[in-house]
Amino acid sequence: MGFVHPTTPRPTLLFAIGSDDPDAVRRVLEAGEAHATDTAGPTGQSALEFTLANTQLSRRLDIARVLLAFGAQADEEGEEVLGAVDPAMRYYLRRAEADLARKASALIHRSFFRPLTRMRYELVGQDRALEQLFRVLSMHSQQLSVLPVVVLLCGPSGHGKSLLARKFGALLDVPTHTVNMTTLRSAHDLWQAFSMTLYEEPTTCTLAEFLVNNEGKRCVVVLDEIEKVEEKTLWSLLMPWESGRCSFEASSRPIDVRNVIWLGTSNVGHDVVAEHHAARSLPDEVMSRDEYVRLMNLVREPVSKHMGPSVLSRVTTVLPFVPFTRDERTAICAEAFHTLGAQMVSHLTTDAFDALISSVLESYVPSEGARSLYRAVSNQLVDL
């Protein structure tokens, strides 16, 4: 048997990176054919450093995010690499090494929910919301709570609520059923609702059929725009959210829904979040855990008025999504420029690109979130 140098890279990962396809890299890592901490390239660089240094890759930043999501170590790259990449990647590299991210991820490190830690490289901001979510899932995994998991994502539009709900099931590799609550008029409509989302194939399966088909199994139900229905329409959720049992009609047998993760999205409480944000002395700093807990409690009041106290009492946690910090807004702008106009900005110097981002940041509207930045980026690209 010939001698193999210990730093010889695994060719599958090297080839996946070289294909300039983030999905190919993800498949290799998910299959266990390689690890994100493996070396790559002829000089024994880490896979992350090799990717960031390879300017011939048009999607190197997307590939780097995949590597980070699967555990690549950002601290090995040093300040030299940090300075060589754009603001979006600097944001993700620093986030990977932040104490808050590490401590929060440790909460579900050994549980079924561990893949959700990759959400930090899909979603900009909302560090405290993710931390609280991981705490709830940790309690559920350790059987420290007997109730089903019901999470309400609330707050201003455009700050990642729908993105988190959409990615949740995909990251866990479990089935998801998304109900557009704006179309419902009764509890019967709820159970007969088809899954409706722009990111899924059309389905002929109703929510009732989905729950029967996945009885006793881990799955996700997303109730989008949950505040748009009357309170009495939600009363049919009281039993499944309380006992983990669900009956669609008085004469039907109850089915086991204890392993369903219920996610609701809502703009309720956006005014409370806005007032809280305006009163902060350091609005561009990530808030402390204590400050976020106080905000969670403040938001429960408007949620109770919309959904009713009996429904809210069965919600495991209410997670307010908050306005972005300046670093987060900068990362969103940089990503948007690369996604919408990669070739148009590729020739810009670092200073010119930073100036372009700065001009877009002035268009940020907290009540509209990332959408206001995407609109401003599109306008800037038209003028380039």
Automatic annotation (TrEMBL):
Residues 151-270 form the ATPase dynein-related AAA domain. InterPro entries: ATPase_dyneun-rel_AAA, ClpA/B, ClpA_ClpB, P-loop_NTPase. This is P-loop containing nucleoside triphosphate hydrolase protein. SUPFAM superfamilies: P-loop containing nucleoside triphosphate hydrolases. GO terms for molecular function: ATP binding; ATP hydrolysis activity. PANTHER family: ATP-DEPENDENT CLP PROTEASE, HEAT SHOCK PROTEIN 104. Pfam families: AAA_5. It comes from Mycena belliarum. One of its GO terms (cellular component) is cytoplasm. GO terms for biological process: cellular response to heat. Keywords: ATP-binding, Hydrolase, Nucleotide-binding.
